[in-house]
Amino acid sequence: MLHDVKTIREMCAEYGVTPRTLRFYEAGGLLSPQRDGQHRLFSRRDEARLKLILRGKRFGFSLEEIGELLNMYDRDDSELRQLRRTCEIARAHLTEMEQKRDALEEAIEDLKQELAWGETVLATAGAPKA
Q1: Element (H, E) at 21
Q2: CB of 39 closer than 8 Å to CB of 7
Q3: Can you give the residue ranges of every domain in the chain?
Q4: What percent of the chain has pLDDT over 90?
Q5: Distances (CA, A) of 33 to 24, 45, 53, 122
Q6: Which of the residues 41, 56, 77, 114 could staple to 5 if both were Cys, CB 3.0 to 4.6 A apart?
Q7: N-terminal to C-terminal alpha carbon distance within the chain
Q8: Which residues pair with 7 in a beta bridge?
Q9: What pLDDT shows up at residue 79?
């Protein structure tokens, strides 16, 4: 069984996370590595869960939402129920992200206009008066 597990160092190197991050996810019940004395040994299940945690974080899911989805899969073992809930959460986050993007695009356009105005004023301020 030991060949199917990874150490905390191996998990950190492979997934670009810190030991503190893995311990935080463990403390939150998102990961449950085996213990060999003081050493944590992460199973393939932990690895799969970490991939889902990182993907969820990238998409803006809270750790609470990620935990809900992971626990739903563990309880029900029905991917359809988990997928429905994932889609609900993802739709809400997509809407929020699109709203933020639209607001950012509007702010960028406003800033470009202000900059163009400022540069025009500066360019004409140095021109000789007719």
Answers
A1: helix 19-27
A2: yes
A3: 1-58, 61-116
A4: 70
A5: 12, 9, 15, 63
A6: 41
A7: 88
A8: 41
A9: 74
Q: Are strands 39-42 and 34-36 parallel, antiparallel or unpaired?
A: antiparallel
Domain 1-58 belongs to what architecture? Orthogonal Bundle (1.10)
- The pLDDT tens digits of the residues spanning 62-101 come to 999 999 888 876 665 567 877 888 889 999 999 999 999 9
| Adjacent-strand bridge partners of 40 | 35
Q: How many Cβ atoms from other residues are within 10 Å of residue 42's Cβ?
A: 24
Nearest Cα neighbor of 72 from 61, 62, 86, 56 is: 86
User: Is the whole model's pTM more than 0.85, yes or no?
Assistant: no
Following CA atoms 75, 80, 86, 87 in sequence, which dihedral angle do they give, to the nearest 10 degrees?
-160
Phi-psi region of 49 (alpha: psi -120 to 50; beta: other; left: phi over 0): alpha
Which 8-state DSSP code applies to residue 30? S
**In contact, 66 and 60? CB cutoff 8 Å:** no
29 vs 99: CA distance, rounded Å: 32
- Give dist(CA 44, CA 83) in Å, integer: 21
